[in-house]
Design goal:
This protein has one domain. Helices cover 77% and strands 0% of the residues. It contains 3 helices and no strands.
């Protein structure tokens, strides 16, 4: 497996784990036994995950709106002539 695809996946894993830790913080707060370690550890892990995710190359364009883009390009010269 190449490291180009592995690093962003590890970053996604860290973000999910960080969200889980913050959820544990919220649950501990609702229980009346607030544990700030979950919050700070969750924020650190989310930050680390975001850093790993940012190292990834942006995904290629999907082309979902190519038809709308072509229609808009076709319409713009007509409206410029008016």
């Amino acid at each position: 497996m190449d490291s180009d695809g592995l690093i962003p996946r590890i970053g996604t894993f860290f973000v999910i784990v960080g969200v889980g830790l913050i959820a544990l913080f919220a649950i501990s707060d609702f229980a009346g036994m607030t544990n700030f370690d979950y919050f700070f550890l969750g924020m650190f892990v989310i930050g680390l995950g975001v850093l790993f995710r940012r190292r990834a190359a942006p995904p290629p364009p999907s082309g979902r709106f190519s038809i709308l883009r072509k229609l808009r390009e076709m319409m713009s010269p007509k409206s410029a002539k008016k």
